[in-house]
Design a protein that fits this description.
With 801 residues, the chain is α/β, with parallel strands linked by helices. The chain contains 33 helices and 33 strands.
Length: 801
């Protein structure tokens, strides 16, 4: 390991240096601490690292810019963060900067060939820059000039030809102002990162339990008798969850892990803040591991529901909570009839599990009086995701697992404030009550027609129907599906505006004119206001709202806070006579919170309550009163047909995954330590038997072709790596594999891209000459995309991108 501040890397990823080792069977430990400190010091030095990490997730400090896992409302540890949280802070804390010299040195043509790893590691953006049509380089622009340009383009367009994207990093106050700006303009085009991740959760939970959020607290996780962790890799994506699972285990609870990949964090947790985690054997976590096929979860939960009903027949009154069902739910008779019988052959085929495995886990459910189902993107990104989550809700309703200690539904959000952004009104399908409240509070007339979600925005780009695209954080070109089609569409837009902290791919595949506006991050001090330093707030996965306030000196004097940027965009667009007092909100964030308190239920006395020791918890009827605010005032049992993913002959089901050295589209490094993959990312993890049947060898270079409705997409130059994934399934990192996800491949109802539902086959990698010839057949735009993302349409596909 190298300790000490290091310059930005000059070399980019060299996939020929890929190393493969045996996967780990335990997570965290002393190694995690050492890696976290090494990365942090390399970016920011010792002093700045210490100043930030000691305030990370602490009261009066700042919220981790990584995942949304909650903090305890009781005693907190001195190190209240995980390895990847420390890496996330290091990325933001870095003393490396990107200014005018960088943009003058590197043309867009050169940067197009760089990976996201290289771009992100160059440092923090330090001044606003612009590139106009025909120019090859970004160059500095004043803040006034930037806002005038934005106002000119928006006024020259129409509201519904403007799109406003939001990343989960955005704080509550910013999100509220941002959606107000869009609606005051006259559009609901408010796609966000939730469209790509947990939209399926909200689409399933709202009609069945009356709220699109989880119904548990951190204490419930600790007190549960049984926890299912489904389609989730907590060791990498939510490492602090491992501590909560450990506490559950220490109290006698049990854990069932359901995942196609045997992730280290599902099996053993070595808590580096305890003696047993440092010198002992750690804490075994999963009592049972179900290595399910990708897309087999709906079949599993239908089987579990059937088995619970069968157990109730054998011992009436001991399994099913009939009094709860009668008093609080609807649809039970139809559900009971649908689950009365089960086709075990189909269930085993769909899940890849044996009947004995499923019956063993069902017996654990029967014995549990308080169960929690946790899930993440492994469940939400398939065509039948909404039905799958509804099936999970059915099983929870059967045993009355709402409104009691240690029980409930727990969709684990992947980004710090993605849930809070939706609470603040970032949604393309707003409810009438919200629009009415906004109109009353601000004297505007909000549009009532629905706007574009993320996939619909892509399609609008493709049709040339977007003049202005504003991205509040995030990296839209690499976060969404069908990379080549998306990037070609973005380049048709008149103006793209990126409010960012670091360079990313979306800045390179920009509109005809493009602005990059550098903003403060979570760790930065925000004190350039008439009333001095300001703070913001966030909402975690369990509906706790609390403050976040950075204390570090920003790396540049030219950075503006996000609320200030929104206000100045609005002023430049609407002029001085607009009914909303944008400047007053930008100068004093208490003013924003007062508006929120009058508009959003649950935020009464916001300014007082957010200043309390632990913040406050938003109302949650299923959790608080065991009631359900659905359209019928009851929890709803639903009936769905059996469905699972069935690839064509010669194909596997491919899912995208994160590396351990990655957070969403940000790469911290190139070491996927727990899976044993390092110094490379273009890999396909494949079961050894599937590898043998395919006729390829371990580490062989292949081109990957995905097929959907008769159309092929391909991504070239991946290495096959034999790995103990579920048979018939494979895995690849995103965003490298995003080019394989057809934009039409989405979840029903939620419209979430099918990142966990690709049918792929492999072809020998084309020789470089043949590859260039094939790319040339596709025209200049596709060939250019092939040089960068190495994703393109197959020459034999039936339709273009």
């Amino acid at each position: 390991m190298k300790f000490g501040k290091q310059p930005a890397p000059v070399a980019d990823i060299n996939e020929d240096q890929l190393e493969v080792h045996k996967p780990k069977t335990e997570a965290a430990g002393v190694k995690a601490v050492m890696v976290a400190l090494e990365r942090a010091v390399a970016q920011a030095g010792v002093t700045r690292t210490a100043q930030s990490l000691l305030r990370l997730n602490q009261r009066g400090g700042f919220d981790c810019p990584g995942c949304a896992w909650p903090e305890s409302d009781k005693k907190r540890k001195a190190a209240e963060f995980c390895e990847n949280g420390a890496k996330a802070v290091a990325e933001e804390n870095t003393l490396r900067t990107v200014g005018a010299e960088f943009w003058a040195k590197h043309s867009i043509a050169e940067l197009s060939g760089k990976t996201e790893y290289w771009l992100g590691n160059q440092g923090r953006l330090s001044e606003p820059v612009v590139i106009r049509e025909g120019e090859a380089h970004y160059s500095p622009i004043s803040w006034n000039g930037a806002f005038e340009l934005i106002g000119e383009h928006i006024r020259a367009s129409t509201p519904d030809r403007c799109v406003f994207y939001t990343s989960g990093r955005t704080a509550n106050e910013t999100a509220f102002m941002y959606q107000l700006f869009a609606r005051a303009l006259g559009t609901n085009n408010l796609p966000d990162c939730s469209n790509m991740c947990h939209e399926s959760s909200g689409s399933a939970l709202n009609p069945t339990i009356g709220i699109g959020k989880g119904t548990v607290s951190l204490d419930d996780i600790h007190d549960a008798e049984l926890i299912f962790v489904v389609g989730q890799n907590p060791g990498t994506n939510h490492p602090r969850m491992l501590s909560a699972l450990k506490e559950c285990k220490d109290k006698g609870g049990k854990v069932v892990a359901v995942n196609p990949l045997p992730e280290a964090g599902l099996f053993n947790f070595r808590d580096p803040q305890t003696l047993s985690g440092v010198v002992g054997g750690g804490t075994p976590l999963a009592d049972e591991y179900l290595q399910i096929k990708v897309g087999g979860d709906l079949a599993l939960f239908q089987a579990l529901g059937h088995l619970l009903l069968e157990a109730e027949k054998q011992n009436p009154g001991t399994v099913v909570d009939h009094s709860f069902i009668a008093a609080q739910t609807d649809g039970f008779d139809a559900y009971r009839e649908a689950r009365a019988s089960l086709n075990w052959d189909e269930t085993e085929k769909g899940t890849g599990l044996t009947r004995a495995q499923i019956e063993k886990v069902a017996a654990m459910l029967v014995a549990s009086k308080a169960s929690i189902f946790c899930w993440a993107l492994g469940v939400t990104q398939q065509p039948h995701s909404v039905d799958t989550i509804k099936e999970m809700v059915n099983v929870l309703l059967l045993q009355g697992n709402f409104g009691k200690s240690g029980a409930g539904a727990c969709p684990v959000r992947g980004h710090s404030n993605v849930q809070g952004d939706r609470t603040m009104g970032i949604w393309e399908k707003p409810k009438e009550w919200l629009l009415t409240a906004l109109d009353s509070e601000f004297g505007i007339t909000s549009p009532r027609h629905h706007g574009f979600d993320a996939v619909e925005s892509m399609e609008a780009f493709d049709r040339g129907e977007v003049d202005v695209f504003v991205s509040m954080g995030g990296n839209f070109s690499l976060a969404c599906s069908d990379t080549e089609a998306l990037e070609a569409g973005m380049q048709r837009i008149g103006l793209t505006v990126h409010i960012s902290t670091k360079p990313n791919r979306s800045h390179i595949v920009h509109g005809r004119t493009s602005l990059i506006l550098p903003t403060l991050g979570r760790t930065d001090k925000d004190d350039k206001h008439p009333k001095g330093a300001q703070f913001l707030s966030v909402e975690d996965s369990m509906s706790v709202v609390h403050s976040t306030q950075g204390r570090l000196t920003p790396v540049s004097e030219h950075l503006l806070a996000e609320p200030v940027i929104v206000a100045r965009m609005a002023e430049a667009t609407f002029g001085p006579d607009h009914p909303v007092d944008w400047r007053r909100m930008a100068e004093d964030y208490d003013v924003i919170r007062d508006h929120i308190a009058r508009v959003l239920p649950g935020f009464e006395d916001f300014n007082d309550r957010v200043r309390t020791r632990n913040g406050f918890v938003l109302p949650n009827p299923p959790r608080d009163t065991r009631s359900f605010a659905t359209d019928i005032g009851r929890g709803r049992f639903t009936v769905s047909p059996l469905e699972y993913l069935t690839p064509p002959p010669g194909h596997l089901v491919l899912q995208t995954i994160r590396s351990h050295d990655q957070y969403n589209t940000t790469f911290y490094g190139l070491d996927d330590r727990y899976r044993g993959i390092s110094d490379g990312r273009r890999v396909i993890l494949i079961h050894p038997e599937d590898l043998a049947e395919s006729g390829f060898q371990d580490r062989e270079l292949v081109d990957v072709v995905s097929t959907f409705q008769g159309v092929d997409r391909r991504a070239d130059k991946f290495r096959l790596v034999a790995y103990p994934t579920a048979k018939g399934c494979a895995a690849a990192y995103f965003p490298e594999a995003n080019a394989l996800v057809h934009k039409e491949n989405v979840a029903r109802v939620s419209n979430t891209p099918g990142f966990k539902a690709m049918f792929v086959r492999f072809e020998p990698h084309l020789a470089e000459g043949a590859e260039g010839e094939a790319a040339g057949d596709l025209g200049p735009a596709a060939a250019a995309s092939n040089l960068t993302s190495q994703g393109r349409l197959s020459p034999h596909s039936k339709a273009g991108g």
